[in-house]
Amino acid sequence: MMDHRLMPSLGGMLFVPTTLEKGAPALIQIANGQKFPNLRTVIFDLEDSVKAEDVPLGMENLRRALPEFWTDSTVQVYVRARDASNLSALVQMPGIERIHGFVLPKLDTTNVKDYFKRLPRQSHFAIMPILETMETFSTDKLLRLRDILDGNNLYGPRIQCILIGAMDLLKLLRIQPDIEDTIYDTVIAGVIDNIVLAFTPAGYKVSGTIYRGFGEELEAVLSREVELDTKRGMFSKLAIHPRQIEVIEAGYAVSIKDLLRALAILAPDAPGVFKLFGEMVEPVTQIEWAKRIFARVVRFGLSGGEVTAPGSSARSHDLQIELKYKHLNLTWSQHWEPGSPDRLAAAPVASYLEVLQLSESLQIK
Q1: Which residues, 6 or more positions from 178, have their beta carbon under 8 angstroms from its beta carbon?
Q2: Are strands 236-239 and 126-131 parallel, antiparallel or unpaired?
Q3: Where are the beta strands (DSSP E) in 132-190?
Q4: Of all residues in the chain, what percent are helix, strand and coil, respectively (each to 5)?
Q5: How many Å apart are CA 138 and CA 142, to the nearest integer?
C-alpha cells in the first residue's frame, strides 16, 4: 500500500459552512486561494455546521460555485457530505471533478461499504473519513475498520487522512471541556491514542482534532494542543477559524535540533549508532522519521530559519531546496509528485561528521 498519506501536506484544514452569507462567491474566493492566500486545505461543510433545513441552500451554493473553482488552485478542496445519500447527490453535480475529494462523517464498519459504493470507481477523489461514532471507543472496531480499508483496493488507497470528530465523541459522553483545556486534558485522549496506534503503523495519516477557541487570548492553548498532536506524529489539524491556521502551522515548523538529527541520520556514511545532543541516534530505526523531517521543512519551514525553493519545476515536481539558518546554508534536491512519497533525491550532507561540526559551530547542545 502506498504511504503518501504519511506525508505532511494538508496543514491546517479549515471547515467552512456552505451556507455562508455571501453564498457561492465566497466559496469561490476561498477555493481559489483569493480569500486566505496561505490556506492549504478547505473543507466545505454540509453536515454539523449546517441545519437540516438549510442543506438545500448549501447544495445550491456549492452547485453554483463548483464550475468556478480553479483546477490549479493552491488550495486543496474537500466537501464534507451530510451522509451517504447526500454523497450520491454531490458526485452528480457538474464541476464536482474540480474538487480533491470528500470528507465522510461518522464513518464506521456499519456504513463504510455504503459510502464507498456511492463513489465512481475510476474517479480521482481522495477520501477523509471522520471517526466519531460509538464504534470509535472500541479498539476492536477500529482494527476491524482498518482491515476493511486495507482489504479493499478501492478503499485504502483513496484515504488521504483519518479525521477524528472530537466534538461528536464528547457529545456521546455528555462532556463539554473547559476552553482552557486541550483535547488531551479530556477523557478522550486515550481514544485519540488508540486511533493513532491502530492506523498510523498501517500507513494512514491521522489528523489532529478541532479546538473550539479562536480568540487571541486562547492561542497559547491551541499551540499547546498542536505540540501534543505533533508528539503523536500528527501534522495536520482541523480548524474552525482562519486565525487558527497560522498558529497550527507554526507548530509544524522544524526545530534546528531535529533538522540536524535528520541530516546525520540520512548522511551516506552514518554509522549504525552514534551520539548527538546527548542522545543515542540509530539510523536504521529513525530513517523514516528523518525523511518526514525534510517533508515538513519543505511544507512548513524551519523555526528561526528561512526555506525557499528557487528554480523548482512545478511540471517535473523536482524541488531545489535552499535553507538558511544563521551561518548555515544547505541546498538539496527533493522530488515530489501527487500520490507518491516525498523523497530526497540527494542527501543534504556528504558526511555525518559535517553535522557534528555544524552543531558545534552553531553552539547547539
Answers
A1: none
A2: unpaired
A3: 163-164
A4: 40, 20, 40
A5: 6
- Residue identified by cell 554509522 is 271
Tell me: do 269 and 245 sit in the same domain: no
Determine the length of the chain. 365
The dihedral of CA 58, 63, 66, 68: what is its sign?
Answer: negative
Rounded to whole angstroms, the Cα distance separating 225 from 231 reads 10
Query: Final residue of a domain: which of 192, 218, 250?
Result: 250
Nearby residues of 126 by Cβ (< 8 Å), 6 or more positions away: 78, 100, 101, 102, 158, 159, 160
Query: Do 37 and 185 belong together in one domain?
Result: yes
Count other C-beta atoms under 10 Å from residue 206's C-beta. Answer: 25
Q: How far apart are CA 249 and CA 88, in angstroms?
A: 34
CA–CA gap between residue 18 and residue 116 (Å, rounded): 23
- In this structure, the answer to whether residues 82 and 121 fall within a common structural domain is yes
> Which residues, including other chains, have CB under 8 Å from residue 224's CB and lie 6 or more apart?
182
Q: Are 341 and 4 in contact (CB under 8 A)?
A: yes
In tens, the pLDDT along 223-259 reads 999 999 999 999 899 999 999 999 999 999 999 999 9
> Under DSSP, is residue 210 helix (H, G, I), strand (E, B) or coil?
coil
Instruction: Please report, to the nearest 10 degrees, the dihedral formed by the alpha carbons of residues 171, 172, 173, 176 taken in order.
Output: 0
Tens digits of per-residue pLDDT, 270-296? Answer: 999 999 998 999 999 999 899 889 888
Tell me, yes or no, whether 190 and 326 share the same domain: no
Nearest to 334 by CA among 355, 316, 353: 316
